[in-house]
Design a protein that fits this description.
The protein has 416 residues and is mainly alpha-helical. It has helices at residues 3-7, 10-43, 47-61, 64-74, 76-94, 100-114, 116-128, 131-162, 165-186, 198-206, 221-225, 228-240, 242-249, 251-257, 263-269, 272-293, 298-312, 325-353, 356-388, 391-411.
Length: 416
């Protein structure tokens, strides 16, 4: 009997591979922000042009419904292998850029390819895990988002110290190509995987709700858009995700220009909010399980957890006003923790409410809403930060999630 059949833990190995893929995905997308203080003067790029470069990425990611539909149609294994190969090649091509227009085009293409990360991860969670384990599984793969962003700071700083900023993109892209080999070697759906035991397969199937089972039909975008529960997830994501965009794309610039950090301090400080975010990825599912064990049903447990994260997010109100630079980093870290607490909760909720064969499309549509807000927020920052500073934006981030929590409680309805 194989190790996986004996331990009945193959599903956790699978989600571990997905987590590694998410790490690579967020490492490649975060490399730009950490390298920005170095390549912007090198290429003659100002904050306004930089905001358009980051907006191009968000515009590409907004096409998540397209990549979600592709994954639903051609299958997860082939689809993620193709798109992840594009992550690698496009990231490496960043090292060849010589003006902001080239970076604009490359970021748009990379955004489209990288839109598969959460979409694919959510499909794996839905296929491989029973309902009670989906929150933890979602938290584990979402660890990759903050871990990848955290790793970008020391990796880019080391690459610049050893070679130059261009080398950082080459190294990050090569890691994506390595992950493709790992994915193709180990991933199969539960019904086809040669290493899964019958006990583990039965455990997975027994814990999955009837209403999320595949119906054998292609997903209808119009049908999804007419569902109240879709907007109950999409609107909170629209309101919450500017926090992640700010931490991912603007944090190093804020620390350099406002708090006057050097490259060594960036390498130490810029990853701290993402380490805290990793803890939030585990804290959120743990709170959901704690509430369920005390008799709260799954949907309400997720709503209460989201609300807790929104309350913690109010610490962001004070980032721009504290005198100590390291106190600001601490508040930003609290924001990262709070954001991932609520983000992993609302993302996973989609797998509780929608069928497996439409989940990729649902995740893509909700992701479009989330990334539209990052795009808008980033363009506003690029246009206004030179005149009004960062403080008004931090205040907005501290309040938006409270509105998102109210929407989640108002719109989402429990499945019959």
């Amino acid at each position: 009997m194989s190790f996986w059949r004996r331990t009945r833990a193959l599903r956790w190995w699978i989600i571990g591979i997905v987590m590694l893929g998410t790490i690579v995905n967020y490492l490649t997308r975060s490399t730009l922000a950490v390298a920005a203080p170095v390549f912007m003067p090198d290429l003659g790029i100002d904050e306004h042009q930089y905001s358009w470069i980051t907006a191009a990425f968000q515009a590409g990611v907004m096409l998540q419904p397209v990549v979600g539909y592709i994954l639903d149609t051609i299958g997860l294994r082939t689809g993620l292998a193709v798109f992840a190969s594009c992550w690698g090649v496009l990231t490496m091509a960043h090292g060849l850029a010589f003006n902001w227009q080239m970076l604009f085009g490359l970021r748009g293409a990379l955004g489209f390819a990288e839109g598969t990360s959460h979409t694919g991860g959510l499909k794996v969670v839905s296929e491989w895990f029973p309902a009670r384990e989906r929150g933890l599984a979602g938290g584990i793969y979402n660890l990759g988002a903050s871990a990848g962003s955290a790793l970008a700071a020391p990796l880019v700083a080391w690459s610049i110290w050893m070679w130059n900023w261009r080398a950082a993109f080459v190294i990050a892209g090569a890691l994506a190509l390595f992950w493709v080999l790992l994915w193709l070697r180990f991933y199969r759906p539960p019904a086809e995987h040669p290493e899964i035991g019958e006990e583990e397969r039965a455990h997975i199937l027994a814990g999955q709700e009837q209403h999320i089972q595949a119906a054998g039909a292609r997903p209808s975008i119009l049908s999804i858009l007419r569902q109240r529960n879709f907007w109950g997830i999409a609107i909170p994501r629209f309101l919450a995700d500017p926090t992640w965009g700010t931490l991912t794309f603007w944090l190093p610039l804020y620390l350099v220009k406002v708090r006057h950090f050097d490259l060594a301090e960036i390498a130490v400080s810029a990853f701290l909010p993402f380490v805290a975010a990793d803890l939030g990825c585990l804290f959120g599912p743990a709170v959901v399980l704690w509430l369920q064990r005390r008799g709260v049903d799954l949907i309400d447990a997720r709503r209460w957890t989201f609300t807790l994260g929104a309350v913690l997010m109010t610490g962001m109100l004070f980032v721009g006003t504290v005198e100590s630079a390291w106190a600001a980093v601490a508040l930003l870290s609290l924001g990262g923790f709070a954001h991932q607490t609520l983000s992993v909760t609302v993302i996973t909720m989609a797998s509780d409410l929608f069928r497996r064969d439409e989940l990729g499309t649902v995740a893509g549509l909700a992701g479009t809403c989330a990334n539209a807000s990052i795009l808008i927020f980033s363009l506003l920052m690029g246009s206004l930060v030179a005149s009004i500073g960062y403080t008004p934006f931090f205040i907005a981030l501290g309040l938006l999630d409270l509105v998102a929590a109210a929407v989640l409680w108002t719109l989402v309805r429990k499945p019959a």
